[in-house]
Amino acid sequence: MSDKFAFAQELDAQDELKHFRSRFFIPQHEGKEVIYLCGNSLGLQPKTASEAIQKELNKWADYGVEGHFVGEQPWWQFRKPIKPLLAEILGAKPTEVAIMNSLTTNLHLLLVSFYNPQGKRKKVLMEAGAFPSDQYALETHLHFRGVSPDENIIEVAPQKNEHILQTEQILETIEKLADELALVIFGGVNYYTGQVFEMQKITQKAHQVGAVVGFDLAHAVGNVKLDLHAWQVDFATWCSYKYLNSGPGGVSGIFIHEKHHNKDLPRFGGWWGQVESERFLMKKGFKPIPDADGWQLSNEPILPMALHQASLQVFHEATMDKLVAKSNLLTHYLYEWLIEFAGEHIEIITPKNPPHRAAQLSIFAKSKGKELHQYLLKNGIITDWREPNVVRMAPVPLYNTFTEVFLTAQKVAEFYK
Ligand SMILES: *Cc1c(COP(=O)(O)O)cnc(C)c1O
Known about the structure:
InterPro entries: Kynureninase, PyrdxlP-dep_Trfase, PyrdxlP-dep_Trfase_major, PyrdxlP-dep_Trfase_small. Its EC number is 3.7.1.3. This is Kynureninase. Keywords: Hydrolase, Pyridine nucleotide biosynthesis, Pyridoxal phosphate. By secondary structure, the protein is of the alpha/beta class. The protein folds into two domains: 2-33 and 319-415, Alpha-Beta Complex (Aspartate Aminotransferase, domain 1), CATH 3.90.1150.10; 54-317, Type I PLP-dependent aspartate aminotransferase-like (Major domain) (Aspartate Aminotransferase, domain 2, 3-Layer(aba) Sandwich). It has 14 helices and 15 strands. Strands 4-10-9-8-7-5-6 form a seven-stranded mixed beta sheet, with helices on both faces. A hairpin with a 2-residue loop joins strand 1 and strand 2. It starts with a helix and ends with a helix. The mean pLDDT is 97. Pyridoxal-5'-phosphate is lined by residues 102-104, 131, 133-134, 187, 191, 216, 218-219, 239.
């Protein structure tokens, strides 16, 4: 084992992203840095976060309402330099991105514009076992629109005794629903299994049958390489507090493909979506900004946006290409070492290889799953527990190391010894 430990240390020494770890606060346990494998749930705090907020607090203290108009990033246009940073991560044009609200709120707003049940085309296709908030949003939204959720939400589930969905299965279901299918709304990455869905193929097939396609990217953004514009995805939303490290409850965002910007889509509007030249005229008549900003309702929440910006700048420096390359290796080693050291006690239900998995492994414990999670916690390894028997581990390329991944696999083995 010591050979392998030396090898892990060697991988860390060669890691060209290694200096990014020092840009984050790492929580402590008994005087030592924890091994934090929960970046899929709440990403760690960039050290620039408090400075970013303090700057805006100072501006508020010094200028009051004038803060909307002074400084290099006046509040009334605070989003402008942030959007290109986010667009980079999404594979989008800055005009296709708006920063607003929270994820579930945005899901509802996007459904207002993109769920258009007509005649027999009413059905919505989702992955079975989607995150509960998404299930509740779809159920209540359809109900509100006078469409029966029981009859019209179709869930595609893994085959018997399997944990993951075959892409073929998803595509066949879309083809079968054909002209009854109004909308496909899928996760980019399933929160429970860590499976990365083939978003481009799903989008193509759904468009072939005339359906609209949206993705919930909560677990995908900042984790997998996205190319939403080129893939022709109609819309998407996400949260910023998981892989994007923008703080608990951080501000969400939406993607609206450019092809929809000049359509007269139904929407719930607000003054911040009004064309800028007329926003302050306080006149009747909603004229939306002809891009994703036209969906923004309210003026910007400056403090959460300052946090978001501080974190996105780190991503910009690291680049998604390099992050994904390291992530693939890091998770690969976690996988290999877990199987080698503790393979008889666990089953990893996440697909083994990219592009079907990213920075998360879901470990199904054949026995004593909850105790395993507790044991790791007691030993300063933070993972997360999901009923009925899964420990999720997310090695994040910005701040996790090969040595940490090695030590984690070793602790799992030690627990079962
Ligand atoms: C984390 C997560 C959410 C959380 O929704 P909020 O509105 O941010 O509380 C919703 N959906 C998915 C798929 C998630 O992973």
